[in-house]
Every structure is written in C-alpha cells, then in structure tokens.
Amino acid sequence: MREKHNMNEEQAKIVALRALAYLVGDEDALQRFMDLSGIDSTELRAGADDPAMLGGVLDYFLGNETELLEMCTATDMAGEEPGRARHSLAGNKYDEWS
Fold it and tell me: 1, 45, 66, 92: least surrounded by Cβ within 10 Å?
C-alpha cells in the first residue's frame, strides 16, 4: 500500500495550489486560515510556490475534516490527495497520519 503515497513534488504542489485557490475563494475559510496562521494576504500570495506555505494550506484542511471534504468536493479532488500531497511536500518524512 505504500505506493499510494508516491506523489512527486510537482504533483503535490498542484494539489496544494488547487486547495489554495479554493481557500481564497471562500472568504470565511480564508479569514480563519489567516487568523490561525498569522499570515496576511500579501504573505500568502508571496508564498504560493513555497512548499512550506503550501504545506500549511494543506495542514489547514487536513485539520478540519468538514472543510477538507467541502474543498475536495468543490475541486473534484479525491479525499486522500491532500494527505498524499502533504506527505510529499514534507519530503516524505512522515508515515501515514491516520
């Protein structure tokens, strides 16, 4: 089953960018993200290609199942993709979280 985790960094960034696009389209979620992360919209735009920032976006969704499922549904993304992408952006350093 370990091969299911294989996602290269480019694929992971695409998943994370789709999550980011969804996030900026949802004012309430975006505000919660900025409140929790302590970053503002300028920093978010500047970090849009930074694996750490993109990982933070994925962490936001992975930490809230309801928002994760809403984002996945809205972006037509399989529910396991954000976790796989996060795993890849972390340099595949972590075993499965759930």
Answer: 1
Residue owning tokens 């089953």:
1
pLDDT, tens digit, 9 for 90 and up, residues 10-34:
999 999 999 999 999 999 999 999 9
Instruction: Tell me the residue type at 77.
Output: M
List, in sequence order, every beta strand (DSSP E) within 1-98.
none
CA 53, CA 69: separation in Å to the nearest integer?
21
Look up residue 67 and give its two tokens.
């928002």
Distance CA 94, CA 87 (A): 6
Residue type, 98: S
Q: Where are the domains of the chain?
A: 2-88
Residue indicated by tokens 């396991």: 80
